[in-house]
Every structure is written in C-alpha cells, then in structure tokens.
Amino acid sequence: xxxxxxxxxxxxxxxxxxxxxxxxxxxxxxxxxxxxxxxxxxxxxxxxxxxxxxxxxxxxxxxxxxxxxxxxxxxxxxxxxxxxxxxxxxxxxxxxxxxxxxxxxxxxxxxxxxxxxxxxxxxxxxxxxxxxxxxxxxxxxxxxxxxxxxxxxxxxxxxxxxxxxxxxxxxxxxxxxxxxxxxxxxxxxxxxxxxxxxxxxxxxxxxxxxxxxxxxxxxxxxxxxxxxxxxxxxxxxxxxxxxxxxxxxxxxxxxxxxxxxxxxxxxxxxxxxxxxxxxxxxxxxxxxxxxxxxxxxxxxxxxxxxxxxxxxxxxxxxxxxxxxxxxxxxxxxxxxxxxxxxx
Length: 343
Fold this sequence. Notes:
Layout: H1 2-17, H2 25-32, H3 38-41, H4 44-58, H5 69-72, H6 86-97, H7 106-116, H8 121-140, H9 146-172, H10 180-190, H11 194-206, H12 216-234, H13 239-254, H14 256-277, H15 285-300, H16 302-326, H17 331-342
Helix pairs in contact: 6-7, 8-9, 8-12, 9-11, 11-15, 12-13, 12-14, 14-15, 14-16
C-alpha cells in the first residue's frame, strides 16, 4: 500500500518539475515575495522547493511538498563547523517577514515565507471580490430599499474596477515612462486582457445615470469565479469548507464556461438596452457609443471572443431570416453596421 500511495505523488512531482514556470506571471510575483538570503536564493534545490510550493498552491493542492529540513540543513552545514553559526544567517530574513515569529531553526526560516504569502495579491483579490459579490447580491435583491440598492449598485462596479486595476498593476506594472510611445506599448499589452475589459465595463456604468441591475450579471459571475478558485485552493482541507462550500465551489469551477456564456449574453443584451435608452429621458449617446466600442473589443479579444462570437452567431441565425422575409429594407443599414463592426 505504501507503493500505491507513492506512485501518484511521483507523477505529481514529475508534473511539477516539468511545469513552465517562466511563462506564468504568478511565479515571478510569488518568487519576488520570498525573503531568503542571497546565497540560498542562488541554490537550485531551494528554487526547486519553492517551485513545488508554488505548484501546490496554484496548480495542484494535492501535491505533497516535503520540508527543507533534509536539503537545507545538510548543505549549509558543510561550510559551518558548528550549529551555533546557523541561527544568525536565518534569523535575519525571518525578522523581515514576520517579527513575532519565535526564533527556532533554519528550517522554520525556510518554511516561514510561504505562510506570509497568505496576504499576497491573491488574498487581496479574494477579499475585494467577496465584498463585491455580497454588495452586488444586495443591489439585485428586490426587497432592499431603493436608495440602498442604488448605493450597492455603484459600489459593486467601483469594487470590480479597483480589483481589475489592481490585477493589471500586479501583473503588468506601470508604463516605463510617461510619454506617448511608452503608453502605446503599455496599452497594447493590456488592452486585450480580461481585467482591462472589465475595468472599462465598470467605468461605463458607474458613471451612468441609468440603473440597470441586468449589468451586474457579469460582475457577479466574475466575483464568483475568483472567490471559488481561492476557496478551493486555500481552504480545501477545512471542515467548514467541506461541509458547506465544497459542493457549490465544485459546481462553479466545473461550469465556468456556462458562466462565461451567461456573461456574454448579458453584455450583448446591455448593448441593445442602451440603444433603447436613447429614446428615453435618460439617454446618453456617448455612453452608448463607448459601450458598443467595448462590445467590439470583446468580440475580438482572445479571452472573450469565443463566447461573444457564439452568441452573435445565434442572434444572426435567428434574426437574419426574419429580416429577409419581413424587413428587407434593413439589409443596407445592417451591411453598413457590419462593415464598421469588422473594421
């Protein structure tokens, strides 16, 4: 039975060793937050250990990562003839990461940084998205007073905009210089990302006088996906999680495609609602034009193109026969709109 338990872990260690860490932006963020002495950071066994920790946290929570007691305590002991020299070299990085941690051994110093990473970018994103989810549900709930619902409606968009902006800053940083060429290069690198699309989406509605609860559907789906991934990654061994949250989280994680299609349908439906709003007292021509530019970007961006193109194809298969049969005079305006859309 011992060999049967070791075989899956052996395959997981092989998968962790062959993972492409350099092309994963989360690895650079993870490694930059680890505080260890320079002589340990240059050692391949230490780097491999933290790569396995990263793989366990972000890719496969079932991977068992052994402590560095066997690798880190044996190798540093070679140049040092007595064990009394070991604590000073390890206490220094530990005092930088956690000041209240008791001084123990070199193993505790090596295992300390991953626990401090619990308050990294992922934790902040989880906190913000959990708050957005609660506030958005409050805004949609029909029995909430109107003034409170309006406040929650705007706070939902503001929270999602801040979360998207923080994610963009964490992954891509800021422009190298505040001149036109640098800004063009920077925006070309982020314009097709999902965070940038949601940032513009939230700005479009948080500054609008229209109160469309329908617009909160993509915000709810995004917040739900972020919260679910964080809970499954960090609380999968908690008894409360397994009792109350495991089944909903598994359902959300296995139906992300359904949620993305639902978000795409809501986003396209909002475009037509904004066109209808042009015939009301709350019309905003600039907002409608900007939102349709955003829909055009969603149709072309790789992260959303598949879902939006699927929805538009269904609309075309339904509407085109009706136009050909009952309103052929609309063929010319639709052809002009299609030329603008694909330009």
